[in-house]
Specification:
0% strand; 2 domains; Terpenoid_cyclase/PrenylTrfase; globular; 46% helix; mainly alpha; 12 helices
Length: 276
């Protein structure tokens, strides 16, 4: 992807910054995860993938908008009313960490919050039973768990936090059972196995990339199987996007059916982690 194409993508994303009624992709009443795929938290992630530096005025303003949602107990209120679910805080924390804020004192409190509420199976769950209750809902939610681990990988010394090994084990367990589990019914099936980019949901590429940062995962045959599944989908060492949300389909960095330089860079990070 050329610099001109990269800049075109950045400008295209910025063109939506007031679509939801507020600024920087927020709604008029301050919702930061509303208006997918052009919500505040999602767009912050896209701009990181496109290489916009943390000191860029747009990035600074977007980070500040997300930090305004931080609460003293470490949670993020990304919606003005209602229950604050752990997954919402996880998405906000992950975005801020990728933007360079992992050492911020507020994020330190958020990390403590996650360790305090870790579920007995090692993951994190939101307790919102949209699909009713059953034996499968007694587990944590895989995607929020993956998102929490994605945030923690930016924390200095994270590999020494043994509680995170339990979270890794939970996700490796899910690779084996495959079936939908957790209150939100996250499963591993056909859609999971498609290479989706940018990272927006629970899928193979996101799963392998995040877990590759954890020694506990890298040494496990289940992770190695997941990585090999991803590797077999590459073409000449490049990531070819198999699935992208339609509203992002025209952007250069994530065109369906084509190699993506940005996605391939994330794949190379996986390879670098495997060499540790």
């Amino acid at each position: 992807m050329t610099q001109q194409e990269r800049q075109a993508d950045i400008e295209a994303i910025l063109s939506h910054r007031r679509d939801n009624g507020g600024d920087f992709w927020a709604t008029a009443d301050g919702r930061l995860l509303k208006g997918a795929p052009f919500s505040t938290i999602e767009c912050a992630g896209y701009l990181v993938e496109l290489g916009l530096p943390p000191e860029d005025p747009v990035m600074l303003a977007t980070a500040e908008r997300i930090l305004q949602a931080w609460r003293e107990d470490g949670r993020f209120r990304v919606y003005p009313q209602g229950v604050i679910y752990p997954c919402q805080t996880a998405h906000a924390a992950s975005a801020l960490c990728r933007m360079g804020y992992a050492s911020d004192a507020r994020l330190q409190k958020t990390f403590e919050y996650f360790l305090d509420i870790q579920y007995h199976d090692g993951g994190w769950r939101c307790g919102k039973f949209s699909f009713g209750r059953g034996p499968e809902t007694e587990y944590s939610d895989p995607f929020p768990t993956l998102t929490v681990l994605d945030a923690f990988r930016f924390l200095e010394g994270y590999e020494s936090i043994q509680l995170l090994d339990r979270a890794v084990e939970f996700l490796l367990f899910h690779w084996t059972v495959r079936r939908p589990i957790g209150p939100c019914h996250y499963g591993i099936g056909t859609l999971f196995m498609q290479v989706e980019y940018p990272f927006r949901g629970y899928n193979l590429f996101h799963y392998v990339h995040t877990l590759s940062h954890y020694r506990r995962a890298r040494e496990d045959p289940r992770f190695q199987q997941a990585f090999e599944t991803l590797r077999q989908k590459t073409v000449d060492g490049q990531i070819v996007v198999q699935r992208v949300v339609p509203k992002l389909a025209k952007l250069n960095f994530c065109k369906k059916g084509q190699p993506s330089d940005a996605a391939t860079q994330r794949y190379r990070e996986i390879l670098e982690n495997l060499e540790k």
